[in-house]
Specification:
heterodimer, A: 286 residues, mainly alpha, 16 helices, B: 313 residues, alpha+beta, five-stranded antiparallel sheet, two-stranded antiparallel sheet, 8 helices, 7 strands, rod-shaped
């Protein structure tokens, strides 16, 4: 008999997955606080030396196109910008969850990671270009929205294998198959785990709506719908992990209308997302 | 030349101008306007972020400048503080060195004294035993081990004062009251063996002179000091001496000696005794000394007597 959602969360909250919690929480505090400064961010990154070295490595990559070589986090903040370093730190820390790479029925952690980055980038671009907003929250949501799949892979191995096999065989939605096998889905896991980690409300309340944006609370409706649109667009463009997914165009167009984005806008954004991701691949992000 | 046909000018055919359809143009215009909007929004945000970054950077710079100023102030006072501390430390070091010298000297003295007393203890011809305040033996010297024919490991930490079977009855009480106990004893090794007190290489008995005194430091009782002397020889000598003395005394009573003024007749050489009687010399001397006489003639009297005999008819 598979474990209940609470049992899984209890195990995950005390596992190595939770090692990212501290740094990610603090980066999010820095992101959300208007009083945070470069020194706060630098100190936060430097307490995790592997993270600091990855951030520096990528800050010096062709992706940011800096001529000058940066040897310190503070240099990176000054040269490539506070916002860029924040994003880099967050993505590299979350990336630690996706290190193990086992290919199984089309699923691999690195593919999920690539997909998460694409969703994060797409969501951010939508927010910036369509709403003229920074898009920090949507970026974080994009990175973490498939966290539940990692938890299933690590702690519900038998059931997860069963889900993937059944999904492939029956050509059903991942969520539908999860509900049939476990009684809950990866979005429920992500929502409960972020609550357990005491992440900001905006994150906990929106992370569970990447596939099902409709029941999202009104105050987070735009965020949830943007997340859905990014997720949908990246899957359609086959960027990263692409579980067999029934096209729910109805919801897609509903979301487009709700956030007042033209389909053309989104496709132009996806062109840039694709370019960005290819550059990231060349620079060793994946 | 006149009359010739004008040359036809060669014209190159231009490629026909592609006319895009209006819907396609509209689509391109739409694309461009979307791109422009995206660019405008992105740039606006980038400007804001850049300004915010610059402000944050200036905040950091101000903070750094403030910290540098504080650091400079601190540096100025630091040198003075370091000098003051160095002086204090130097004085403290000197005091410490002096203390170490004194302590070292004292320790050397103590060590020498300890060695001295240890030598006295170890090499003393008198047996010395040390007991703690509970009456348990804690040490004894070689002389004591020789007296009792014992080994250290069988008595130290095992033998108690009260285990001595020949300890006088009220000795312990007297010792605990601070008194000194002195006694002589005929120590019986066979008794020790029978009681299983400790193994001994000696047999028979010996005469011991024992002195037990309490060891104190101020009001605190530290233990007991026992001095043991084997006086067997001395006792033997003393007994012998007494015997000889008696003999001499007896002999003395028999010794007759002449002394003082003796009244003697100038004519017949008789001597008057204490009772007033005139005695012949031989009689008087025989009575008052152990001398006896054997009569003979001296040469003069022999010559005289011979003349008398020759002259007799």
């Amino acid at each position: 008999m598979s474990q209940t959602l609470e049992e899984v969360i209890r195990v995950a909250a005390h596992s190595d997955i939770s090692s990212i919690q501290n740094i990610v929480s603090r980066i999010m505090e820095v992101i959300q606080s208007p009083k945070s400064n470069a020194i706060d961010l630098k100190n936060l990154i430097e307490i995790d030396p592997p993270l600091a070295s990855r951030v520096l490595k990528l800050a010096n990559s062709a992706y940011y196109g800096m001529k000058r070589r940066m040897g310190e986090i503070l240099d990176a903040i000054v040269c490539i910008g506070f916002e860029a370093v924040k994003e880099l730190a967050l993505s590299q820390k979350v990336c630690e969850l996706f290190h193990k790479d086992v290919l199984m029925h089309g699923y691999s952690r690195s593919a999920i990671w690539m997909h998460s980055i694409c969703v994060a980038q797409c969501g951010k671009m939508i927010y910036r270009r369509e709403f003229r907003l920074p898009g920090d929250d949507i970026y974080t949501l994009g990175l973490l929205h498939d966290l539940g799949i990692i938890v299933e892979d690590q702690f519900l191995r038998k059931e997860f294998t069963q889900i993937l096999e059944r999904r492939k065989k029956e050509k059903k939605d991942l969520i539908e198959t999860e509900m049939a096998v476990l009684g809950y889905c990866h979005e429920d896991i992500a929502r409960r785990l972020t609550e357990e980690w005491h992440f900001p409300d905006v994150l906990c309340k929106t992370i569970g709506y990447a596939e099902r944006p409709r029941p999202a609370p009104e105050e987070y409706s735009r965020l949830a719908k943007t997340l859905y649109l990014s997720n949908y667009a990246c899957r359609k463009a086959r960027l990263g992990y692409n579980e067999c997914h029934r096209e729910t165009d109805e919801v897609y167009y509903e979301c487009l209308k709700a956030v007042d984005i033209k389909e053309k806008s989104l496709s132009l954004i996806m062109v840039d997302v694709d370019k960005t991701v290819r550059q990231m691949q060349r620079d060793g992000w994946f | 030349m006149a009359g010739s046909k004008p040359k036809k000018r060669k014209t190159t055919r231009r490629a026909p101008v592609k006319r895009e359809s209006i819907p396609r143009l509209k689509a391109r215009v739409e694309d461009l306007s979307i791109r422009l909007k995206h660019l405008a929004n992105d740039n606006a945000l980038k400007n804001q972020e850049q300004q915010a970054s610059i402000l944050k950077y200036f905040d950091v710079l101000s903070e750094v400048r403030r910290k540098n100023t504080e650091l400079e102030e601190l540096k100025k006072t630091l040198e003075q503080r370091v000098m003051d501390r160095t002086t204090l430390l130097g004085a403290a070091n000197q005091r410490l060195e002096n203390e170490i010298l004194v302590r070292s000297h004292t320790e050397n003295l103590l060590r020498r004294e300890e060695e001295k007393f240890r030598r006295i203890f170890d090499q003393s011809p008198i047996g010395i035993e040390l007991f703690n305040d509970e009456g348990l033996m804690v040490d004894l010297n070689q002389a004591c081990l020789d007296i009792f024919g014992a080994r250290k490991e069988y008595v130290v930490g095992r033998f108690r004062l009260e285990d001595d079977p020949q300890l006088p009855k009220n000795a312990l009480h007297k010792l605990k009251s601070g008194g000194i106990v002195k006694y002589d004893q005929t120590f019986d090794f066979d008794l020790v063996r029978r009681k299983g007190l400790y193994p001994s290489t000696r047999n028979g008995t010996c005469e011991l002179a024992v002195t037990i005194s309490p060891l104190r430091s101020g009001n605190q009782q530290l233990g007991f000091l026992v001095l043991v002397q084997d006086v067997t020889e001395q006792k033997k000598n003393a007994t012998e001496r007494e015997r000889l003395l008696n003999e001499v005394q007896q002999a003395l009573t028999q010794v007759k000696a002449l002394s003082g003024l003796l009244p003697i007749c100038a004519s017949c050489k008789k001597i008057r005794d204490d009772k007033g009687y005139w005695n012949q010399v031989e009689q008087y001397i025989s009575r008052h000394t152990s001398a006896t006489f054997t009569h003979g003639f001296c040469p003069e009297c022999a010559k005289k007597k011979l003349q008398e005999v020759n002259a007799a008819p």
